[in-house]
């Protein structure tokens, strides 16, 4: 997802949550300035309430890896409709 978003010229921040805990944790400022949040459907997200009020896209981890360009294109279309 990161490289697909950057290919569109978008700024992207990626937080991971796994067995070793949170990595690259998003700050309150990161979340506040986000136009959209992408979350996985495959696992529970810790502190998901941070994203209240944001447009959220939920994807499977495998789709995020294998179909990142298609996901970014759908997001781009959605953003164009809401602009």
UniProtKB/TrEMBL annotation:
Q: Does the keyword Transport apply?
A: yes
Gene Ontology cellular-component terms listed: plasma membrane
One GO term in the molecular function aspect is: protein-N(PI)-phosphohistidine-fructose phosphotransferase system transporter activity
The PTS EIIB type-2 domain is annotated at: 1-77
Which superkingdom, per the lineage? Bacteria
Keyword Transport applies: yes
Enzyme Commission number(s) of this protein = 2.7.1.202
Q: Name one Pfam family in it.
A: PTS_IIB
Give coiled-coil spans as residue ranges. Answer: none
GO annotation terms (biological process): phosphoenolpyruvate-dependent sugar phosphotransferase system
InterPro entries under this entry?
Answer: Bacterial_PTS_Sugar_Transport (IPR050864), PTS_EIIB-like_sf (IPR036095), PTS_EIIB_2 (IPR013011), PTS_EIIB_2/3 (IPR003501), PTS_IIB_fruc (IPR003353)
The record's keywords, sorted A to Z, are:
Kinase, Phosphoprotein, Phosphotransferase system, Sugar transport, Transferase, Transport
Return the protein name: PTS fructose-like transporter subunit IIB
Q: Which species expresses this protein natively?
A: Streptococcus pasteurianus
């Amino acid at each position: 997802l990161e490289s697909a978003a950057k290919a569109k010229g978008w700024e992207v921040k990626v937080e991971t949550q796994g067995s070793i805990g949170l990595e690259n944790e998003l700050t309150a400022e990161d979340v506040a300035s986000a136009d959209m949040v992408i979350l996985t459907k495959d696992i529970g997200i810790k502190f998901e309430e941070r994203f209240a009020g944001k447009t959220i896209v939920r994807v499977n981890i495998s789709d995020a890896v294998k179909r990142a360009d298609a996901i970014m294109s759908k997001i781009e279309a959605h953003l164009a409709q809401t602009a």
